[in-house]
Amino acid sequence: MKTKLIAFALIACSLGSFAQKGMKVSLTNKEAVAFDDYMVKLPLAKVKAKLPAFDEASFVAVDGTSEIALQVATYQNERYVVFPVAIPAKGGKQVEIRKASSSFSYPKRTYAEITLKQGGQFVNRKYQGGTWVKTNAIRVPDEHTDHSFDIKYEGPGWESDKVAYRFYLDWRNATDLFGKRTSDMVLQNVGVDSFDSYHELSSWGMDILKVGPSLGVGTIAYWDGEKAQRVAKTDSVYSKVAVDGRVQSRVETTYYGWDIADGKHLLRSSISIDAGSRASRQELQIDGTIGNLCTGIIKDAKAELIVSKGSAKGWGYIATWGKQSLNKDNMGLAVLFRSADLITVTSDKDNHVVVLKPKKGVVEYYFLGAWELEPNGIKSKDEFTAYLNKLAAQLSEPVAIRVL
């Protein structure tokens, strides 16, 4: 009996050791700049082939002695395991995917929400009464318009530990920017005390961009040859928080019957943000044949336009820098795009515009804002340009990833 117990204990120990065994991943950076919080993407199928028991709730990435939260995310309909890690310039490292230790704790570094008033009613297209409820999904009511007071800060919100964004779920459909003075998640408390209190500087930050009739930063539009046309006329709109994760969050919106010059289109938008990043990734899918999709940045007399010299194989950008925040601070705005997708950089009365060619109905770009009052914020045009060049290099020459 004693022999059997010893054998059983040895088997259990062996199985426990096997369960803790992880998979090693080699990361190689060919660029001459180091990357902080580089978002590694591993195909989920490859991870499960190596680690059949893998699940995102109990596994971590291990960099040296540091455990890093990971997440399963979707890119262009493919599933990946993602996690942020620092990678040295012209160098590399190995990380391991394995079970988390019992003491593992990791801060939430991204967040997304859709919060609505419920329990009241519309009166002349203004919502009266009710309380805020975080529903994370909405079919936009037919009664809804700008300043209807039924959606907290008028649309979905998403943030990283660097910056926060929202866009309006009405005829404006424009993207706005919240500057943050903290790395904490803040949006859950923004706009709760009064509808537009976020226009005043507070301990967490404030709304720092006046959008008006413009594209704000990164707004979806169509170039009609003279001006950028926002997604103003639709049959209906449905928006949801697809992911509210520790290292990546995503908002998905479907515009049914977007009415533009050549007819109506079904348009799908997927906006995601990663831990440690200022940039929001926008992936658009549109049905039918369309000549272009465009986006851009608001024109401001106080801000200087910056245009990159992107190569055909890489990523380029347009940007502005200057004392253009609503708090009269320095602020940078940018849109990054694949140079191969670029039709033209142009402008209209309100905007600097990037016109892009959809490929099989798909367009991808990034947009971002950088405010000098952020913790360790960017404070000069040179710093901002260097930051954008680094991000463009990161997109143009992704880190080489190899499962060992």
Salient structural properties:
404 residues, mainly beta, Immunoglobulin-like, Beta-galactosidase, Chain A, domain 5, nine-stranded antiparallel beta sheet, five-stranded antiparallel beta sheet, 3 helices
Describe what this molecule looks like in 3D:
The protein has helices spanning 2-20, 44-50, 381-396; strands at residues 23-29, 35-43, 59-63, 66-69, 71-75, 78-87, 91-99, 110-113, 115-118, 121-123, 126-128, 131-134, 137-139, 157-160, 163-167, 175-180, 205-207, 221-223, 228-230, 236-244, 248-260, 263-274, 280-286, 293-298, 303-307, 315-322, 331-338, 342-347, 351-356, 362-371, 400-403. It has 404 residues and is mostly beta strands. The protein is built from three helices and 31 strands. The strands form eight sheets. Strands 13-20-21-22-23-30-27-26-25 form a nine-stranded antiparallel sheet, covered by helices on one side. The chain has a five-stranded antiparallel sheet with strand order 4-3-7-1-31. Strands 8-14-15-16-17 form a five-stranded antiparallel sheet, with no helix packed on it. It folds into two domains: 23-103, Golgi alpha-mannosidase II (Immunoglobulin-like, Sandwich); 110-400, Beta-galactosidase, Chain A, domain 5, CATH 2.70.98. The two termini are 42 Å apart. The radius of gyration is 23 Å and the shape is globular. A hairpin with a 4-residue loop joins strand 18 (221-223) and strand 19 (228-230). The longest helix is centred in the N-terminal third of the chain and has 19 residues, at 2-20.
